[in-house]
Amino acid sequence: MRRYDDACGTAHALELLGDRWALLILRELMLGARRFSQLRADLPGLSANVLTQRLGELESRGLLLHRTLPPPASVPVYELTPWGYETEPITQAMGRWAARSPHHDASLRISGVSLLLSFRTMLDRQRAKGIDAEVGFRFGDDVYRGHLTPSLFAISQGAPDDAQLVFIGSPMALGAAVHGGVPISKLEKAGALTVIGDRKLAQRFTTLFPLPEKLPT
Questions:
Q1: What residues have CB less than 8 Å from 86, skipping those under 6 apart?
Q2: Could you give all domains of the chain from N- to C-terminal order, each with its CATH number?
Q3: pTM (2 decimals)?
């Protein structure tokens, strides 16, 4: 581990999390256990060798663990430890802060986990007033369920039991609707997004997660 020889907790946090890709790997595990191949797919700029190295380092530091799912899956996965899950407020604070940069480009590629975490981070409680809904998301083989209220957007892996609304498509398409202001109808016409269920709720959903105002250039 690289050391700063500094007693400050911030310095030690950087020793634990400051390696390139480390925080993004933790981000991709924030909604539950995932396979190595899933992490590679959602972090395309990260080589398999570096991913293997970072996973080993984060495991040795107590932030994640490597285990095999029980039958019938019986596949190896990585998941965060309880202490690893405590890093979410760190990524949320960094996300809110960096989104104010005039150089932040919300149209770039984004993973499904990252997009859903951005919703949880940017939820506007006033705009969400009166909502209590189950919302599903299907990004290829990755399926998530969310329980949306004015004070919380709880998200986990798996299909919702009784969703009022389901979005199917790529994370970038849904991000374009929510953070880019692209009409849902336009994305549907292009075949990039499918909406099942309450269409009024879908339209309102796209307004609930405003990005912070940019700093002047």
A1: none
A2: 9-92 (1.10.10.10), 107-205 (3.30.1050.10)
A3: 0.94
